[in-house]
Write a structure and sequence with these properties.
By secondary structure, this protein is an all-alpha fold. It has 17 helices and no strands.
């Protein structure tokens, strides 16, 4: 690895570390924060759903804007989004006692952070001149998520939850500083590219029917995944646990991601991306089934261990699935559509989840979510059949 390649591998690794550390604080602990501010489960579900609706609206517009004005280069737009999050975070810290301002800021911050995910993924593949090891960098992001969750478990025992916005404000300041250190224009020769007409979202979905079917499967599976993540504190409390057990559960899921993330490239050399993504979809269902059947905190921890062959496998496999099956000029949109599908799943999950938890037992809601996961498994497998035919 030459000096230039080493520099950008380090920069990208730091980008994922700070992004996923902030993601843990903002999204992983948002229910804990909002419950402490006096909001009901229904209101929390509504806020989470609205943030994801906004994210779904933002992402296609953002991708079209980047393709048109930045030639599909994402570093500067990513830095601009981080700046917006910093401004909104400062407003939230100052006016968090006003529930209207609190809700608007949280909705906007979460929407922007979720919209960044596809850009962070695309940043690794922006320039052909430099090989960035996505698997290792993404694994370090998972490690940052795990350690952040563990740290928050200790901090929230000693300090009030109002500390959370301050923590991710500081984290995203570091992310902004890292992004400012990229200097592609000075150090890297841009490849000359033919100007190609970009597809609209509707045209894109029609162009790749197998991929559209795959995205529907992702929506159904991530309905349950998002529900478990966003309402984990409610699941833990139904088993007589607390935020301490929640932080341990998040830590376990994040920690077991590391081996898969680090070794993905080597595994992918021996096993095709199509097989790996099928395995990930199936293991999502197994993880969700174990969580539904859990009668103790230990079983929740067991379910979290399946993260290694579910989410940890799906994330890099989905990135490479897009690269291998979608035309080069459509890859930025393809990456964004995966993120949008995950976000859409979150919208349905949060809208239904908060309301259903107030209406019925958490066990019944988990049963319904597990059925959705099974339907998603069947749809995603059918999409692979469509691709072969």
């Amino acid at each position: 690895m030459n000096k230039l390649s080493l520099k950008y591998n380090i920069l990208y690794a730091l980008s994922t570390i700070f992004y996923y550390a902030g993601y843990c604080i903002m999204i992983g602990y948002i229910s804990v924060y909002l419950l402490s501010q006096g909001l009901t489960n229904t209101k929390i579900g509504l806020i989470l759903a609205l943030s994801q609706v906004l994210s779904v609206i933002i992402q296609p517009l953002l991708i079209n804007f980047i393709e048109k004005y930045y030639h599909a280069k994402v570093r500067v737009p990513l830095l601009q989004l981080v700046s917006c999050v910093l401004i909104l975070s400062f407003i939230l810290i100052c006016f968090h006692k006003n529930q209207v301002i609190l809700s608007l800021c949280v909705i906007s911050i979460l929407a922007l952070v979720m919209a960044m995910m596809s850009l962070v993924n695309s940043l690794a593949f922006e320039y052909q001149e430099i090989h960035i090891n996505y698997g290792i960098s993404r694994g370090l992001g998972s490690l940052a998520y795990a350690l952040t969750s563990l740290l928050l478990g200790f901090l929230l025992k000693m300090y009030d939850t109002s500390l959370l916005p301050l923590l991710y404000l500081v984290d995203f300041i570091f992310l902004a500083l890292v992004l400012m250190k990229y200097s592609y224009h000075e150090e890297i020769q841009f490849q000359k590219k033919e100007v190609q007409k970009k597809s609209s979202t509707i045209v894109f979905l029609k162009k790749y029917p197998f991929f559209t079917c795959f995205l529907v499967g992702v929506i159904f599976i991530f309905f349950n995944h998002t529900f478990i993540n966003h309402f984990l504190i409610q699941i833990i409390r139904s088993l007589k646990g607390s935020s301490s057990e929640m932080s341990k559960a998040i830590f376990i899921a994040s920690l077991v991601e590391l081996p898969m993330m680090f070794l993905y490239n080597k595994i992918n050399q021996k096993i095709s991306t199509n097989i790996l993504i099928k395995l990930a979809m199936f293991m999502f269902f197994i993880k969700h089934l174990i969580t539904f059947l859990a009668s103790t905190i230990s079983m929740i921890y067991l379910g979290q261990c399946f993260q290694i062959v579910a989410y940890a496998l799906f994330i890099p496999a989905s990135v490479y699935y897009v690269r291998e099956n979608i035309s080069k000029q459509d890859q930025l949109k393809g990456q964004a559509m995966v993120t949008i599908s995950m976000t859409l799943a979150g919208i349905f999950s949060d809208l239904c989840g908060g309301f259903l938890i107030d209406l019925m037992s958490i066990k019944k809601v988990l049963l319904l979510a597990t059925l959705f996961s099974f339907i998603g498994l069947l749809i995603s497998f059918y999409s692979f059949h469509m691709k072969r035919t």
